[in-house]
Design a protein that fits this description.
Layout: E1 9-12, H1 16-27, E2 35-38, H2 41-48, E3 64-67, H3 76-85, E4 94-98, H4 103-111, E5 116-119, H5 124-141
Parallel strand pairs: 1-2, 1-3, 3-4, 4-5
Helix pairs in contact: 1-5, 2-3
């Protein structure tokens, strides 16, 4: 795999404990993907749309977005809606990684185009195994459309 084909994993999560566990798990096996953490929905959109503090980043879309539903500023469902309604972003795989088991969240997420919905296990071993499997599937096994031209800034 060349450097150009190894895309970032975007983790949109506001819970520091879940961030630490996710990073630790993903870094414990040989993924070449860099992991970018954003701590609220507004920051996730800034990253994806290459604006604000991310306006100078290489605007190649991430390989996958791990997205929490309940985040400050802009919630995960609003982020998902923006992703799926923006032509340059809509083919990025999005995995809702959330503690919400509410049927309305699951149904709404799929209706809006989420690729997978994973409820975070409370048990440490189950949580790390779920993250390991997500990382392997979405970063190594799943084929995504080529990144093509970098995104243009939405500003």
């Amino acid at each position: 795999m060349t450097k150009e084909t190894i895309r970032t994993i975007l983790l949109a999560e506001d819970n520091e404990h879940d961030i630490e566990l996710t990073l630790s798990t993903l870094e414990s096996f040989p993924l070449a993907n860099r992991i970018q953490v954003v701590r609220d929905g507004a920051e996730a959109l800034d990253y994806l749309l290459c604006r604000g503090q991310y306006k100078d980043r290489d605007c190649v879309p991430p390989a996958v977005i791990l997205l929490d539903i309940k985040m400050p500023k802009v919630d995960g469902l609003q982020v998902l809606e923006t992703i799926k309604s923006t032509p340059e972003l809509k083919t990025i795989p999005v995995v809702m990684l959330t503690s919400s088991r509410q049927e309305r969240d699951v149904v709404r997420s799929y209706a809006m185009g989420v690729n997978a919905y994973v409820v975070k296990p409370v048990d440490f071993d189950q949580f790390t195994e779920a993250i390991r499997q997500l990382g392997i599937f979405w970063a190594l096994i799943n084929e995504t459309p080529p990144s093509g031209s970098p995104l243009k800034s939405a500003e």
